[in-house]
Amino acid sequence: MKKICVIGSINTDLVALVERFPKPGETLTGKEFHTFPGGKGANQAVAAGRLQAAVAMFGKIGADLYGQQTLANLAANGVDHRGVAVVPGVSSGIAVIEVDGSGENHIVIIPGANAAMDRRVIDERFAWLLEYDIFLFQLEIPLDTVCYTMAKLKECGKTIILDPAPAQILPDAVYPCVDFLTPNETEMAILAQQEIDSEDDLNAAAQRLLAKGVGTVLLKAGKDGAYIIDRSGRWHMPGFAVQAVDTTGAGDSFNAGFAVSLAHGGDLRDHVRFANAVGALATTSQGAQSAMPGLEEVRSLLERG
């Protein structure tokens, strides 16, 4: 099995459960409050660890209680955290999350130590990074670092998976470095700089990204599953029917599930089906990492269809 490395953000999620989202200037009384480990990078690493993959996390935390809790949580979930550095005098990353009665969410990110992920730390540990085969990236650390690192790893023949979230317009030089791009519909529209109101729009947006050099687009479609779009065609991989409680971390779980299946080898459609199952199960309880499924849960859902 190939080895996975996640390069990205590490946060602590402060989660408020509300009946509905407040309007501007409005104060609401919430239902519950919880603290969960999070950050798109750490989420993907923990999700992969829960699936019994060989996975490492590469990122930064602050010298605070949240950082200490993060290291303990990564270790408890089977994630190699030798690549996680402590930054003195800076807070760990924080995400403030509101979740409404339907399971939808609003998220505000305070980067903290994540903002200190620069080219220097990549160069210092690059020989260590080369021990891994499949790399997961997101956009919660500095974009310059993401672009620089993907280019270096691509030159070394590594497999690159980019989750373009939080969405932003990317330099054209990024796209040829990406083997698998995993946007949702909103992120796809931002990357392609066009509105998406139909399947024809979706296909046109994906073709723009493929023309820029992306290997394959995996469009995450929530409860509807995912679309595989490459230069040979488009395929819809249906989702799994589950009772959604909280969608926080579902996209990260999808990415991790895809990487874990890819690490074992096999057919692309099987990898996406596995990813759909992981993403679906991650919505069935509250929180991001706390809701991520184990391998047996995923296998059971796949068997049930």
TrEMBL record:
Requires a divalent cation, most likely magnesium in vivo, as an electrophilic catalyst to aid phosphoryl group transfer. It is the chelate of the metal and the nucleotide that is the actual substrate. It is an enzyme of class 2 (transferase). Its main location: cytoplasm. Keywords: ATP-binding, Carbohydrate metabolism, Cytoplasm, Kinase, Magnesium, Metal-binding, Nucleotide-binding, Potassium, Transferase. Substrate binds at N11, T12, D13, G39, K40, G41, A42, N43, E140, D252. Pathway: Carbohydrate metabolism; D-ribose degradation; D-ribose 5-phosphate from beta-D-ribopyranose: step 2/2. The keyword Lipid metabolism does not apply. It is found in: Cytoplasm. It catalyses: D-ribose + ATP = D-ribose 5-phosphate + ADP + H(+). Activated by a monovalent cation that binds near, but not in, the active site. The most likely occupant of the site in vivo is potassium. Ion binding induces a conformational change that may alter substrate affinity. K(+) binds at D246, T248, A282, S285, G287. Catalyzes the phosphorylation of ribose at O-5 in a reaction requiring ATP and magnesium. The resulting D-ribose-5-phosphate can then be used either for sythesis of nucleotides, histidine, and tryptophan, or as a component of the pentose phosphate pathway. Homodimer. This is Ribokinase.
